[in-house]
């Protein structure tokens, strides 16, 4: 029996205010990953521009686009040309005054195989996403592609075990997290280490708890606060691929643009779940209180 080995690529990049330049970098990274054998390439969150959510600015809504639209169509053309699956991350204009943070999945024939609208929306200093994004309404539904069933989630979703579990219960074969996360430059080194470690641990834990590979693609570089009122964000890169026991298969540096390519054994999930049968041992009849905000 032949193993299902899937070569995957992640494009970790810095971004500027120049959309075309950002797309050129993304596309160059996708081409490099494909040249190195990748059949699935994941791009970081909102890779067509800077992380504009540091401030609340109505002019930023002009950057949103429809799906299908210019960026998704360009990604589809590239996917068809290279014969690979591409997962991108876009600022979606759904209707006037209605916008989403949306991941798109382009299959190897160039078609839009599906999309996922970010469900968990943060609202914290430097991350004012609730001003821009309506919470997703497509649920936690994997996207079927020519290379497998993809459980695509976005950034803040990565802290929620419920999201990963629901994707796993729907048959996802991989979990993918396009991300934009970094430090407040004023934090001391110990706090920075704790934050980055927590980010990595959380997603590796999703791999372990669900017996699935995880791909997390983060941006890198410093982006100043456009209002000049805040300290800006130092994105910590560190994009990685983990196997179904949380083991690192590949990891990018914190401070460099990187095209990360490695192989994922899709059949390993079956082997791992046979010895760690977490899905079998779930006590689903006792979990009703998960539907409550808090147990007072």
From TrEMBL:
<dbReference type="Pfam" id="PF00795">
    <property type="entry name" value="CN_hydrolase"/>
</dbReference>
<dbReference type="GO" id="GO:0016787">
    <property type="term" value="F:hydrolase activity"/>
</dbReference>
<dbReference type="InterPro" id="IPR036526">
    <property type="entry name" value="C-N_Hydrolase_sf"/>
</dbReference>
<protein>
    <submittedName>
        <fullName>Carbon-nitrogen hydrolase</fullName>
    </submittedName>
</protein>
<keyword id="KW-0378">Hydrolase</keyword>
<dbReference type="InterPro" id="IPR003010">
    <property type="entry name" value="C-N_Hydrolase"/>
</dbReference>
<dbReference type="InterPro" id="IPR050345">
    <property type="entry name" value="Aliph_Amidase/BUP"/>
</dbReference>
<feature type="domain" description="CN hydrolase">
    <location>
        <begin position="6"/>
        <end position="266"/>
    </location>
</feature>
């Amino acid at each position: 029996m032949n193993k299902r080995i899937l070569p995957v690529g992640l494009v970790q990049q810095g971004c500027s205010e120049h959309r075309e330049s950002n797309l050129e970098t993304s596309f160059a990274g996708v081409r490099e990953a494909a040249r190195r054998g990748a059949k699935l390439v994941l791009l970081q969150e909102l890779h067509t521009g800077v992380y504009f959510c540091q401030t609340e600015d109505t002019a930023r809504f002009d950057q949103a686009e429809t799906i299908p639209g210019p960026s998704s169509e360009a990604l589809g053309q590239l996917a068809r040309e290279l014969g690979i699956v591409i997962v991108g991350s876009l600022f979606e204009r759904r209707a006037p005054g209605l916008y989403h943070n949306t991941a798109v999945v382009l299959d190897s024939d160039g078609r839009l195989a599906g999309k996922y609208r970010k469900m968990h929306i943060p609202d914290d200093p430097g991350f004012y996403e609730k001003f821009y994004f309506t919470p997703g309404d497509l649920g936690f539904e994997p996207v079927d592609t020519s290379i497998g069933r993809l459980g695509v989630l976005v950034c803040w979703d990565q802290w929620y075990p419920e999201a990963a579990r629901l994707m796993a219960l729907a048959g996802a074969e991989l979990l993918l997290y396009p991300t934009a996360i970094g430090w407040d430059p004023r934090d001391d080194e110990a706090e920075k280490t704790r934050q980055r470690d927590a980010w990595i641990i959380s997603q590796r834990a999703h791999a372990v708890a669900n017996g699935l590979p995880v791909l997390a693609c983060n941006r890198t570089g410093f982006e100043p606060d456009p209002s000049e009122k805040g300290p800006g964000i130092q994105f910590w890169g560190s994009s990685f691929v983990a196997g179904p026991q949380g083991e690192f298969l590949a990891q990018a540096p914190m401070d460099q643009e990187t095209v990360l390519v490695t192989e994922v054994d899709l059949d390993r999930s079956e082997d791992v779940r046979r010895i760690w049968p977490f899905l079998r041992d779930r006590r689903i009849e006792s979990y009703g209180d998960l539907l409550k905000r808090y147990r007072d």
